[in-house]
């Protein structure tokens, strides 16, 4: 793995932690506010219960004074009754007295009702007070915890920021800029490649891109999400296992009239497929760029079979399975069709896995066991 990739992965861990801590710090006051809101509800309940008690007390005082007034009236009527001259006057006063007495009885009933209610009111107030006390204690505890948490988070945040700044100095400037730009918009700037897929955006990589990432020789960005890509060797091993257990790869015949080869570079072109064909004592050579299928240069024809005619092209190349007629090759013109490229690429992958499996088995370097062609002697 490239040191820059390793540093970016560490940087990503630091960035994620910093983001998590910042979010947590921002979240804590909200949690406290939520508890305080609940506390305000309990306070309002208590105030309502206390207001009811007060209202009852006012009503009670009013009733008491009503009764006093009525008693005063009755006493006045009794005094007057001593001085009445007629029976009718006496009756009228007696009626007034009876009426006042009824009023007193009704008011006394109301007072009794208030006294009964007072018990319930009292319980309500006490319950609300107890709840408020409990909630206040709880919120104080929560607030204290939030304070401690914030302090701890801020301490960690400072540490992680220090680590991040340190890590940033270890990454190439352009790469860092790209990583941070993508991070800002997508939340992460580096993505693992697994199963030929960018795990950042789930888009399947082109075969060449996948190989570049897997080889780990250079920094590769995802075409789709622009994240820096890397492969996890442990995951890759898991992925390769079933491939090594696949049916044995069909090997091309040594004396076939047509042979396809892969070369990792050819002149200025980079990766190419070579198509060598024997035809009536002559050999022809076509070269195709492996991603676009573009025909590179002219078709070269030389005397003899292709092993004699093009030994320098064959040396170090990987022999592939593939056979198409001369008419088909002509029909392609300057571009090999996608289906041909796919078929050759699939075989190239198999050949590579085969080489790797052998390397692993023999604990030798790939070069010494690679099924590459040797120059014809
Ligand atoms: Zn992507």
Q: Which descriptors apply to this entry?
A:
4-stranded mixed beta sheet; rod-shaped; 10 helices; 377 residues; alpha+beta; Helix Hairpins; 9 strands; 5-stranded antiparallel beta sheet; binds zinc ion
Q: How do you describe this structure in short?
A:
With 377 residues, this protein is of the alpha+beta class. The chain is built from ten helices and nine strands.
CATH class of the largest domain: Mainly Alpha
Question: What is the N-to-C succession of helices and strands?
Answer: HHHEEHEEHEEEEHHEHHH
Overall mean pLDDT: 87
Major sheet attributes? 5 strands, antiparallel
The count of strands amounts to: 9
Structure ligands: zinc ion
Beta-strand content estimate:
5-15%
Level-2 CATH architecture of the largest domain: Orthogonal Bundle
Query: How would you write the strand order of the largest sheet?
Result: 8-7-6-5-9
Distance between the termini: 39 Å
With helices defined by DSSP (H or I, 4 residues minimum), what is the helix count? 10
- Classification by helices and strands: alpha+beta
Radius of gyration: 47 Å
SSE topology:
Blueprint (H helix, E strand, L loop, with lengths): L2 H81 L3 H83 L3 H14 L3 E5 L2 E2 L8 H9 L4 E2 L6 E3 L2 H12 L13 E6 L8 E8 L2 E8 L10 E4 L2 H4 L1 H4 L3 E3 L5 H7 L5 H25 L3 H4 L8
Parallel strand pairs: 1-4
Antiparallel strand pairs: 1-2, 3-4, 5-6, 5-9, 6-7, 7-8
Helix pairs in contact: 1-2
The structure holds zinc ion.
